[in-house]
Design a protein that fits this description.
With 383 residues, the protein is mostly helical. The chain has one domain (2-381): Up-down Bundle (Growth Hormone, Chain: A). It is built from 16 helices and no strands. The protein has helices at 2-22, 25-52, 55-65, 67-78, 84-113, 118-146, 149-168, 183-195, 198-213, 221-228, 233-255, 263-283, 287-315, 321-334, 336-350, 352-381.
């Protein structure tokens, strides 16, 4: 939570810095594109590495390297030499690290707790992530006003140190080895598993759709804060924190559920809640209503993603876990660069709110189709 609070401070300060330097929603989308771009091409390889090597050791390396972008931005911002291309370069570098960090991290849960409790473990991780999502932006607003943006980046660099100590104290675990030695054959095994499991295939298609046309709206919150509500960084912090509150509540509920949830019901339900709340965000002109809708957005998307992640992990064997989870990471994060560019360009062409309305209303139809097809596929194949 300490490290993730630093990460959200970094994200908030970076978004505000980019918008301050450029006054353009396109650049907000471009920076987000660069941070996710490596996931499009390297996530599958990151999943294969996670299947072949000790996941804890991979995380020690990736978390240590993550200090570099934060320090770089802190120094350039403090010396007032920062340019938008510096931010883009560091976003790209961090994306390269995450292409290996995220598949290893996500597939590590089952090794730590076993398949029976993997959904709770995913939710606990999400709860820590989204607690920080509330704390980080609020701290960022305070630090930016009282100290400056550079201090947000400095604090983020420091926040990685506790993570490295924690990882050192985690016991080493047996790492299942892939049966195939050729990378191409190893990749085919993961794709074959997904192709022959229809509920998982529908889940991945729905996450891909959200990543392309819905989730990137988060990167336009600085524009909504400034243009719709005429508020500065304090307004942005409240909007991001509202999203974090909903995300935390969704993760908290899942983390402490003692009996197995009926995932074939709650997965489609959470997707419906998310898209309805997003539509409200796009049509609201009231700051408090928008903040409340963002709470439901956060609850819906975190519940949906955590349940989908658990649904997949319960049905994949340990030997293929890293590669199958890398497909989940790819559709969730790897496609988001394209989504960020689409939404950023659309916001420049049609206006931020009009572009968001167009995408969110169209997604209502897609979600309705997902609810029908997922439930039917589960009836056919799920026990």
């Amino acid at each position: 939570m300490v490290s993730l609070s630093g990460t959200w401070m970094h994200s908030t300060a970076q978004a505000w810095l980019v918008y301050s330097l450029t006054q353009s929603p396109f650049y907000l989308g471009l920076i987000a594109f660069l941070s996710s771009f490596p996931l499009m091409f390297l996530t599958f390889y990151g999943g294969l590495i996670a299947d072949r090597y000790n996941k804890r050791d991979i995380l020690l390396i990736t978390q240590g390297l993550s200090i570099i972008p934060a320090l770089f931005l802190a120094i350039l911002t403090y010396t007032e030499l920062i340019k938008v291309w510096h931010i883009g370069l560091m976003a790209l570098f961090l994306g390269l690290i995450n292409a290996f960090d995220i598949p290893a991290r996500q597939s590590f849960f089952a090794e730590l707790v076993g398949k029976e409790q993997v959904t709770n473990a995913i939710a606990l991780n999400s709860m820590a992530f989204n607690s920080a999502r509330v704390i980080g932006p609020l701290l960022a607003g305070f630090v930016i006003v009282k100290l400056g943006m550079a201090e947000c980046f400095f604090l983020n660099a420091l926040s990685f140190i506790p993570v490295l100590f924690v990882l050192l104290f985690i016991r080493r675990h047996h790492i299942p080895q892939t049966r195939t030695t050729k990378n191409i054959d190893a990749f085919k095994e993961g794709f074959y598993f997904v192709r022959h499991n229809r509920p998982i295939m529908f889940i991945l298609l729905m996450i891909a759709t959200f990543s392309l046309f819905a989730i990137p709206f988060i990167n336009l919150l600085p524009v909504i804060s400034k243009e719709v509500f005429k508020m500065q960084v304090g307004g942005l912090s409240i909007l991001m924190a509202s999203l974090g509150v909903g995300s935390f509540l969704g993760a908290f509920i899942l983390a402490f559920v003692k009996t197995p949830l009926e995932k074939r019901l709650f997965i489609p339900l959470s997707s419906v809640v998310f898209i309805i709340a997003l539509v409200i965000v796009t049509i609201s002109s009231n700051f408090y209503l928008t903040s409340l809708a963002l709470v439901f957005c956060g609850w819906g998307i975190v519940t949906f993603l955590a349940l989908c992640n658990g649904f997949i992990q319960e049905r994949v064997d340990d030997e293929r876990r890293g590669r199958v989870i890398s497909l989940y990471v790819f559709v969730f994060l790897g496609l988001s660069p394209v989504g960020n560019l689409i939404l950023g360009l659309s916001a420049d062409m049609f206006g931020t709110m009009d572009a968001l309305r167009m995408f969110s209303l169209s997604l209502c139809i897609v979600v309705a189709l997902f609810v029908i097809t997922f439930r039917r596929s589960c009836e056919d194949t799920c026990s």
